[in-house]
User: Which sequence fits this backbone?
């Protein structure tokens, strides 16, 4: 160890700030399909595949580039992970989510009872710009979310963008938070703890980052501060240091100095997404560096909590308030045109930031006043109820909602329950609209600013629902000062009207979605559509050739606000994408029967124009079309509607390709240009053929013949989509092998598929297959070999062959022992 080498105590802590802005549609509590993330459903799914999952099972390579171990980076580093991201992982990537929790439990065993995880303010609000109430709730929600997931109290809490002020730190200290992490240039002065000396100026990044410091707060409380090494953190994030694990390890240890008399903590802090998303294979560089430093005994790997217990802070510090790591102007990046931007659009300005914040501040203050007045009629203590509402966000079961209401209100009628929940949701979204990403990037028309305007739209809708007060026009007037750099985009008000307004969801729109999609999906009597429940009370489907008519009524319930209505609907589908759907609040059985009778009679007479008129008469302006469906279901229906057309396209393209291939080959052979029409047909046909082959586990020679055609005609291959398809095939087969690992047929088939994979003109992501192989090698291999299995020699050879193709060092894996890597 480093002590045996005669070195002073040296410690290493790498902190990863893992965070994604909440991307959910505020009305359905789900992320809708994001085409920019192709071939994944959305950005969260893509970044999970590149970063969050790989850091739970990261590879360490031997000298020949083969995998000799797979380890959890989370268990060896310090990390915070945003509550909104953890919530998404819990629902959509449960294996990665559980790996994060397990890593914290493991680190507690390794690090003297101190876990790797830190808490994070709830939705990445820039805390110095928040009012005290929001600061309080953000901190309490962040702590409670942490308690719920990690089953312990957090020792530390990460501040979004490290944006800091004393009031925020005082609230954190009051809630039991022991430390936070800041950038070096946020320190103002230092002096020995408890002494009478004046503070020595260390502004400009002059503070020694290898120590911990005590910050004494005006209230008499105190909190410890760690100041991360800025130069090395910068190199990790922006200077491609992660291209080599060896270079990374050397840079980390180069900071230690024999001239320092104290125990040295070398620590860095960067976005966790640096390790795999921003820098491909960055997780492997991290795993290698930590393993290398440990193996060479150059430092003890630790986390902040353990280091603080072993080496309590001996110096006091003053900080520079209203500063952040990512803005050299303090916190201007989130309130004004300070000059900070991504740099991607030279010549653009960010004048839009100030009017955007002013508009949201106005909305927050308007809503706060309404909330407090109405809240006093509903809640015992409205603001305390808001602080406790995190328990409902974490568990929306009927029992838990009732527990929250019983603890914070008196006896409520059902209508008052809806009001209570709507008030809480109004306040939740009034905080979500301050998510920092809305100001971080270059223009008001970006998806980040659009997202926070969606939260504002939800707030405005809830104000109208509870108070029957429309404040949208005044909000838009204030937004008009936020001018886009792209003239056609207009102002923030235009972005709201074009991008947000049509997304607003009511119970009527949910029922319209149900009615239209019911023609393509067989719903049970009770079903869920995102965060809504639908109970069908009456449903009548009539058909005539391609024309369909649906008449019915149902109960619709928001599982979030508990708003509920009985709603009737009529849908006329004239074929293709022509849907005409009317919905209205149920007006009684007599009115419902009259509507059904009139429209049914018109349908039986084939008077479709009369049906359109009757829908208009009975339902008024509450009319919806396919355009109004939620995006994923809309995409699914459009795929169904266009299938016949796409099949026709395929037949035409295939015929053009097959019937003209010989002639076009001659044209190419004599040096004449091949017509683009033929190349288009060839490219479409061959990509489709190859995708089907990879999905269906075709023979290698058939796949090779298609690949030769791509090369012959010099066609573009959909490498991203094809890789994703083939990867899913390989993962499915590897999972089947895991279930029956001694099945020689499945083992040899997997080996055959991997031989095909290695011959593809694109690189496959073998992450899951390698994980499963690692598991089999470290938990099952010896028992199979020693268990007297028939044809064990053949099985061993096939298993070794598969490992070679997966780039696994089987001998090294077997040397790890049962269960794999152990600290």
Assistant:
């Amino acid at each position: 160890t480093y002590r045996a080498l005669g070195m002073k105590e040296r410690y290493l802590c790498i902190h990863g700030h893992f965070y994604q802005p909440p991307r959910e549609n505020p009305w359905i509590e789900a992320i809708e399909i994001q085409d920019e993330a192709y071939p994944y459903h959305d950005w969260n799914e893509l970044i999970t595949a590149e970063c969050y999952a790989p850091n739970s099972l990261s590879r360490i390579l031997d000298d020949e580039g083969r995998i000799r171990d797979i380890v959890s980076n989370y268990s060896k580093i310090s990390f915070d992970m945003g509550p909104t991201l953890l919530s998404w992982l819990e629902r959509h990537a449960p294996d990665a989510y559980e790996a994060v929790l397990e890593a914290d439990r493991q680190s507690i065993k390794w690090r003297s009872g101190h876990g790797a995880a830190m808490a994070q303010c709830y939705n990445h609000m820039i805390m110095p710009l928040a009012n005290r109430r929001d600061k309080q709730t953000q901190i309490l929600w962040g702590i409670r979310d942490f308690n719920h997931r990690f089953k312990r109290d957090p020792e530390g809490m990460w501040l979004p963008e490290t944006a800091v002020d004393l009031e925020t730190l005082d609230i954190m200290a009051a809630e039991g938070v022991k430390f936070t992490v800041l950038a070096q240039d946020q320190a103002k002065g230092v002096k020995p703890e408890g002494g009478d000396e004046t503070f020595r100026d260390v502004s400009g990044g002059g503070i020694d980052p290898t120590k911990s410091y005590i910050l004494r707060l005006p209230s008499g409380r105190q909190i410890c501060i760690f100041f991360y090494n800025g130069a090395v953190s910068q190199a990790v994030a922006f200077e491609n240091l992660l291209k080599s694990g060896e270079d990374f390890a050397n840079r980390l240890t180069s900071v230690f100095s024999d001239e320092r008399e104290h125990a040295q903590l070398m620590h860095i802090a960067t976005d966790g997404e640096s390790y795999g998303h921003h820098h491909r294979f960055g997780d492997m560089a991290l795993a290698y560096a930590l393993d290398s430093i440990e193996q060479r005994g150059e430092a003890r790997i630790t986390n902040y909590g353990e280091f603080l217990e072993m080496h309590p802070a001996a110096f006091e510090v003053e900080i520079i308030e209203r500063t952040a790591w990512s803005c050299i102007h303090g916190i201007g990046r989130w309130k004004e045109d300070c000059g900070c931007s991504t740099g991607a659009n030279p010549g653009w300005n960010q004048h839009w930031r100030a009017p955007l914040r002013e508009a949201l501040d106005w909305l927050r203050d308007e809503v706060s006043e309404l909330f407090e007045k109405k809240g006093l009629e509903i809640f015992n203590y409205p603001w305390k109820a808001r602080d406790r509402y995190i328990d409902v966000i974490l568990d929306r079961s009927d029992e838990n909602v009732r527990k929250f209401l019983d603890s914070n209100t008196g006896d409520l009628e059902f209508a008052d329950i809806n009001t209570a929940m709507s008030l809480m949701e109004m306040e939740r979204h009034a905080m979500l609209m301050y998510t920092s990403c809305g100001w971080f990037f270059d223009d008001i028309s970006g998806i980040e600013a659009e997202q926070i305007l969606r939260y504002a739209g939800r707030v405005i809708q809830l104000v109208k629902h509870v108070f029957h007060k429309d404040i949208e026009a005044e909000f838009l007037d204030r937004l008009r000062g936020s001018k886009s750099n792209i003239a056609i985009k207009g102002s923030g008000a235009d972005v709201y009207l074009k991008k947000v307004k049509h997304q607003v969801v009511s119970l009527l729109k949910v029922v319209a979605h149900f009615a239209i999609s019911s023609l393509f999906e067989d719903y049970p009597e009770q079903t869920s559509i995102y965060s809504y429940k639908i109970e069908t009370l009456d449903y009548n489907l009539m058909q005539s050739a391609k024309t369909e008519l649906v008449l019915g009524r149902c109960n619709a319930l928001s599982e979030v606000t508990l708003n509920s209505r009985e709603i009737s609907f009529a849908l006329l589908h004239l074929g293709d994408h022509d849907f005409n759907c009317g919905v209205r609040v149920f007006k009684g059985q007599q009115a419902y029967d009259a509507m059904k009778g009139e429209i049914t009679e018109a349908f039986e007479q084939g008077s479709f124009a009369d049906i359109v008129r009757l829908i208009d008469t009975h339902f008024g302006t509450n009319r919806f079309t396919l355009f109004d469906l939620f995006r994923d279901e809309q995409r699914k229906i459009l795929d169904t509607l266009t299938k016949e057309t796409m099949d026709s396209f395929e037949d035409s393209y295939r015929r053009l390709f097959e019937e003209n291939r010989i002639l076009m080959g001659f044209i190419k052979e004599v040096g004449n240009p091949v017509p683009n029409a033929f190349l288009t047909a060839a490219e479409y046909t061959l990509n489709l053929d190859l995708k089907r082959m990879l999905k269906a586990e075709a023979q290698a020679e058939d796949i090779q013949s298609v690949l030769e055609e791509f090369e012959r005609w010099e066609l573009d291959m959909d490498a991203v989509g094809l890789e994703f398809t083939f990867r899913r095939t390989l993962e499915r087969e590897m999972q089947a092998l895991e279930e029956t690992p001694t099945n020689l047929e499945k083992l040899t088939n997997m080996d055959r598929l991997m031989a095909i994979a290695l011959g593809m003109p694109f690189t496959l992501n073998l992450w899951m297959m390698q994980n499963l192989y690692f598991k089999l090698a470290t938990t099952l291999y010896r028992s199979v070999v020693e268990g007297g299995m028939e044809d064990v020699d053949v099985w061993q050879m096939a298993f070794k062959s598969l490992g070679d193709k997966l780039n696994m060092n089987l001998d090294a894996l077997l040397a790890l022992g049962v269960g794999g890597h152990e600290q």
About this structure: Confidence is low (pLDDT under 50) at residues 1-6. The CA atoms of residues 27 and 505 lie 6 Å apart. The domain at 10-326 is CATH 3.20.110.20 (7-stranded beta/alpha barrel).
